[in-house]
């Protein structure tokens, strides 16, 4: 999901979970490599605005979708969607005390079991029962990657869970920080060392930062393009500028193209973020021409060319 800087700081610095943590939720996967094709949700204002993973529930002919959102520490399922699914396919999952369990579901080629997954209300998530409908019934968060090696193949349009890294050849790896379900990538922004929170839910933004930084590295004389984005049940305004600035990450210079700030963060919150060396958030846009390897067991990452 696109998040304004305020929510980013509160969730990370104050360690506020986005959803109630049950301590019992688990995502079980076979250890073999499994490919999950993904699709994009796009609009004229926000191309590649969300990345969706196909989910098949047992006994259901329909394909549903989870938004792949590493800005969420924990996966969550949408209450309204599963209430409707229960009316049509009552044996496709189990529900107890607002927690949902699914046995032998299919995420692309991967067979997975979801145990005691939390739910939350999400307006508009009721499935549309018609052919070709894109029904998003939940969010796949960072716990999907917990203890696993995952390759996000952006040019190839697929996610490799439990990726077999022996097929990748010699790959230079770099350390990452994984804390409180957040992935932070060391980078240099205009020569300054920063940590960037990687949020695959903030798809449309190369760098989401504070207003001062955004204006400073924007192309001189450029005017912000304003777009209203939705983060859960809130609408916010994204202010994006063109920029020629680059980010050095995983040994590569990556052009930003655009830099963005969200309205709403206070000066104190921005100072707190900077004091920890956090330069902002990056999403899928920065990596669209590459493959991104995330090894959360070894706390390492790498950036690879397309195949």
UniProtKB/TrEMBL annotation:
Annotated keywords: Signal
Signal peptide: 1-20
Protein name per its UniProtKB record: Aspartyl protease
Species of origin: Flaviaesturariibacter flavus
């Amino acid at each position: 999901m696109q998040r304004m800087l305020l929510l980013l700081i509160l969730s990370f610095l104050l360690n506020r979970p986005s959803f109630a943590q049950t301590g019992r939720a688990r995502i079980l996967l076979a250890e073999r490599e499994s490919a999950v094709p993904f699709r994009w949700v796009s609009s004229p204002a926000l191309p590649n605005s969300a990345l969706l993973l196909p989910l098949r529930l047992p006994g259901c002919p329909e394909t549903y979708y989870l938004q792949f959102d590493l800005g969420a520490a924990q996966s969550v399922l949408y209450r309204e969607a599963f209430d409707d699914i229960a009316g049509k396919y009552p044996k496709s999952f189990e529900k107890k005390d607002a927690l949902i369990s699914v046995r032998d579901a299919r995420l692309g080629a991967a067979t997975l079991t979801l145990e005691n997954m939390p739910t939350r209300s999400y307006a508009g998530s009721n499935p549309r029962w018609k052919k070709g409908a894109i029904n998003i019934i939940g969010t796949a968060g960072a716990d999907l990657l917990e203890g696993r090696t995952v390759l996000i193949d952006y040019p190839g349009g697929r996610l490799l869970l439990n990726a077999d890294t022996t097929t990748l050849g010699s790959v230079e790896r770099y350390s990452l920080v994984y804390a409180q379900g957040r992935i932070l990538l060391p980078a240099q922004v205009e020569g300054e060392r920063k940590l960037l929170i990687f949020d695959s839910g903030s798809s449309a933004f190369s760098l989401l930062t504070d207003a001062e930084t955004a204006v400073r590295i924007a192309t001189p004389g450029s005017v912000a393009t304003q777009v209203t984005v939705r983060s859960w049940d809130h609408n916010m305004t994204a202010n994006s500028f063109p920029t020629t600035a680059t980010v050095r990450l995983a040994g590569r210079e990556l052009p930003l193209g655009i830099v963005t700030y969200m309205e709403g963060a206070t000066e104190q919150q921005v100072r707190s973020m900077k004091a920890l060396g956090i330069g902002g958030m990056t999403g899928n846009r920065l990596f669209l021409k590459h493959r991104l390897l995330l090894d959360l067991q070894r706390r390492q990452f790498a950036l690879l060319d397309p195949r």
